[in-house]
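Training component of the fellowship. As part of building independent skills, the fellow (R.M.) carried out the full modelling exercise for a liganded target. The chosen ligand was fe (ii) ion. The inputs are recorded below so that the supervisory panel can assess the work.
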Amino acid sequence: MELTLARVKKDRQINEFIKQTNHYLKELGYTDHGFRHVNIVADRALSLAAKIGLSKKTGELAAIAGYCHDMGNFLGRTQHHYWAAMLFSQIYIKEADPNDLSTIMQAIVNHDKNDLKLLNDVSAILVLADKSDVHRSRVLEVVKNGNMDIHDRVNYSVTDSDLFVEKNKKIIHLFLKVDTKVTSVLEYFEIFTERMTFCRTAAEYLGYRFSLEINNFKLS
Ligand SMILES: [Fe+2]
Ligand SMILES: [Fe+2]
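Fellow's submitted model of the complex:
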């Protein structure tokens, strides 16, 4: 059986894990890790792989990993990447090609900051697609005039985000528009320096440079 994103997206069990994850993390006050996030990560993984000239297969595997990477959260946040990989294998271990299955599992585990290792292109694409999803629409609970926590505030401040590939110059650009009435660029970095470093490491693994531009200022 060939694993495809279309097939995985139709899997009732996988979709239930994603639904439960979003519910669980919403209760804990996290930003969106549900269908909005995983669909963005899957689509971004697919298009990023195509834009930098990787094979269709690599893009498909990265997109599947993207759709499933956060679905273990409903069993616990700190180990969510392991849970997700294990749940994925439970569903597909009998049918999927062993190499495809292992590659996806490994990418899922490696997307977390505590286990970030880049051993193949699929993992690197997933890191870029996941860590670049910073946007106002990720905030689940908008507290007007009130005290949003710093993660919500920083995500809420990003009104526009675009991942763009300049293939001839070998640069992956992340353009962000930050509403400085909501947060300062400094606060943005307080939260996202680590994420941006992961993006840079992943881009370099793929033979690209990572460039970050906020409000028309080139920061790297
Ligand atoms: Fe995650
Ligand atoms: Fe994620």
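The panel noted the following from the submitted structure. The first strand starts at residue 158 and ends at 166. The beta strands are 158-166, 171-178, 209-214, 217-218.
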